[in-house]
Target: Lon protease
Amino acid sequence: METNEFWENSTKLARMEDSLPKQIFLLPIKVRPVFPGIITPLIVPPGRFIQSIEESSKGAGFLGLILLKEDESDLPSEDNIFQIGVVARILKKINLPDGGMNILVNTIQRFKINSIHTKEPVLMANVSYPEEELGTSKNNIKALMRTLLILTKELAQNNPLFTEDMKLTMMNVNEPAKMADFVCSILNLEKEEYQSVIEAIQINDRLEKVLLFLKKEIELVVLQKKIQEQINDKIDNQQRQFFLREQLKAIQQELGTGEDKTEIKYEKLLERLKSIPVAEEIITEVDREIDKFKNSDPISSDYNVIRNYLDLVDALPWEKPKEKDVNLVHAKKILNRDHHKLEDVKERILEFLAVHKLNPKSKGSILCLVGPPGVGKTSIAKSVAEALGRKFYRFSVGGVRDEAEIKGHRRTYIGAMPGKLISALKITKERDAVILLDEIDKMSQGFQGDPQAALLEVLDPEQNSNFRDHYLDLPFDLSDVLFIATANTFEPIPRVLLDRMEVIQLSGYITEEKVQIFQKYLWKKIFEKNGLNPDSFSMKKETVALLINSYSRESGLRGLEKTFDKLVRKIALKQVLKEKYSKEIREKDLVEYLGTPPFVDDRMTPKVPGTALGLAWTNAGGSTLLIEAVLIPGKGGITLTGQMGKMMEESANIALSFVKNYINNDVLFDKKAIHLHVPDGATPKDGPSAGITMATAILSLVTGQVIAPGFGMTGELTLTGEVLAIGGLREKIVAAKRVGIKKIIFPKDNERAFQEIPDYVKKGVSFYPVTRFEEVEKLVFPKSKGKKK
Model:
């Protein structure tokens, strides 16, 4: 056939409407449509469409293949299909064991759904068969077809998935419409893109769409081929480097020169360890790791693990530390420079340094500084390090739950690291560093292990000379390290751990001490922090004392520092805004800048029967405890409120029983009960030292007497009236002075501890040691006649 005749016939495509049925059974299909002119098998799952195939086979066997819009949809099939599909004729069908069917169909021509004829039980539609048109000139169609042929050949050359049969089929297709359908069927497109070609009735529109999709596919194949070539080149390059590296090693071994710098570094490490010397186990293990490193491929996972391990070994200070001269005069100056008062603490530290000077080989004890927040525990540890001329390292163990934080992870784990102690020595590069274990009382036990138990080996001078970190897995001598621990209270610390430490208690500061520390240290520090000159304003001692007592009543100095910082910020704002302010801060200015004082002392003086003022000890230092008692209807019992702990509840019951026996008034307690309350009910309270205070409050209530003014008291009471020793006497005295108490009753058994308290702390206060409650009664109730019979 001549070319002109072909194009003439192509413009007059045969209409098959006369031979194709106007009503056909519809078979929805998923993923991708089937284009006209293709014989292909289809698997139909069990269901309603099996009946459509059976009904269609009874006639001419025509079936409408229509693409679903959404493969997984709850919509009925008739609402989830496109409107243009391909009519096919069933050539063969095979029933499947699961109730489905495998059919072989020959697709013929596009059809369009005009309306749905039947929905149940089968899906049947009234259809028409659109006539295909060129849509443009013959030359344009010819040019489009040639371009399509060229691009398809290019795709076939770059895509190894194309088979020879597909290439042959492509060469034998001459009709533009069939050529476009065939090429589109072999592309990897989205469902909507396939459907757009099915719906393209005009041949030029169909060719243009297919050309666009074909161009995108070629670009994708070219990019994929480029990526594959890059990967192959990279693999080939790595293999080439590996072989060259092995050849270079062999040449270097023959020549005895040109070793890798890293390997030279590790060889020097081995020589260093042999010259110290260290335990044979260490040298053997390091030598073995170096051999493994040399024989490891740099791209292997073990390479960096071994390298990190050897770098850690190289960074650790294995050598014996140099002896440092301890100058006690210099050490005393440093302690006095950085800390005001705390004479007993300074003396204990100087004793420790003196022993170290006389016997440098003495392992000594581990210091544990215990005291409320803000009293200078961390700064004392820094001063000790400076006095000894050693490096200082601090890490907080508060909240640590994992044993590996102390002893490291085993190297078998991904991301394993050494423990904090080995890391500290790696950083300081000194084996006799001062390491501060901060907040040791706040460690807790988790499911990863018990870090407190891990510290037992670290803090025991008899064991830590062969400390073995899990990551390092070599014995390391920690006996030259000076460990200093800090804690707010020693109760949470396990006894076995506490036995390995020497506890040095730091009490809170009294007002006079705070005033001096404020003027000597804090004044300049806060001004520099806020960018002001220290002469921006002034404060008299009386104003400073008011600032301390009314705005920052605490054992330490952090609250005072924060409060004064707030005051200075207010002045800084006024300076920047160029507003006027008083150059001398007075009481009225404190109220203006800081607001109403949160602390008042009026309620701390018992003024009515049934009230007494006790002294208590807390984790934050000493505090005062106002106890109130009233009579309520009842039969001799006692009601307790104010979040008292178990020991405090026992003390209240002992106090009540003692007072009942003491006054011997059965008639009163047959009709009345006692309600005893400790204000500030949101704060938990516990301890036995409020025993005499509770008994005094109850006795004051039942006798109607108000206790003498100015008294505060502390002491444990027994059922027979004995007053037993208590703890935290210094903290309680400091707390009493803070609120203006001038008379303190305390157990005579505490006189030894009382004598150790500096005189400046006791100055201005009268003290009354007692052994029995009768002595307490005579002091607080001067007009009392004693025990009532």
Q: What stands out?
A: The chain has a mean pLDDT of 83. The chain is about 45% helix and 15% strand.
